């Protein structure tokens, strides 16, 4: 069982009872556009992506430490498939995550979804320029339109061990190839 604990700037920890279940709850990410935390959990069997809307931010610590708010956690059915969906990460209006859903290139592939009008689009496989027969996982993207680049990090797990990859692409090429 893996659960969340949040630390403030003074090192005090708060057990995030609003997120935690008896299953594995991991990889939280926050969308300022929706005001929701997203995370993956196997609380329903497979790993799926769940969300928890956070009310006004000045009381976020009180909210996440209150176990009664766990009832407000919802599986995001627009993002979760019938397979394992893990490692969500949000940058602006794009969520990236790894999944072993059918139709991929092997193992875990990276997918993306775009938030438009408060709705996440159907997840799209990032394709063979990113995905391989190995496991791609834990994606992080940073969109910086000022620099016209998208910086992305993700490890690829190969038989010899894990190999870290960093990809920097011009924004125009990234948008054409990925989203």
- Overall SS class: mainly beta
Q: How is the main sheet built?
A: 5 strands, antiparallel
How large is the count of helical segments?
2
- Give helix % range: under 10%
**Measured distance between first and last alpha carbons:** 34 Å
Order of helices and strands: EEEEEHEEEEEEEEEEH
Report the sheet-strand fraction. over 45%
Rg, rounded, reads 17 Å
How are the SSEs placed, and which strands pair?
Layout: E1 5-7, E2 13-15, E3 25-31, E4 36-44, E5 46-53, H1 60-65, E6 74-75, E7 85-91, E8 94-99, E9 109-116, E10 119-120, E11 124-125, E12 135-136, E13 140-144, E14 149-158, E15 161-170, H2 171-177
Antiparallel strand pairs: 1-2, 3-4, 4-5, 5-6, 7-8, 8-9, 9-10, 9-11, 12-14, 13-14, 14-15
Provide structural commentary.
This protein is mainly beta and 179 residues long. The chain has one domain (5-136). Helix content is 7%, strand content 47%. It is built from two helices and 15 strands. Strands 7, 8, 9, 10 and 11 form a five-stranded antiparallel β-sheet that branches. The longest helix has 7 residues, at 171-177. It is globular and about 45 Å long. The N and C termini lie far apart (34 Å).
Provide keyphrases for this structure.
five-stranded antiparallel sheet, 47% strand, four-stranded antiparallel sheet, disordered C terminus, 7% helix, 2 helices, mainly beta, 179 residues
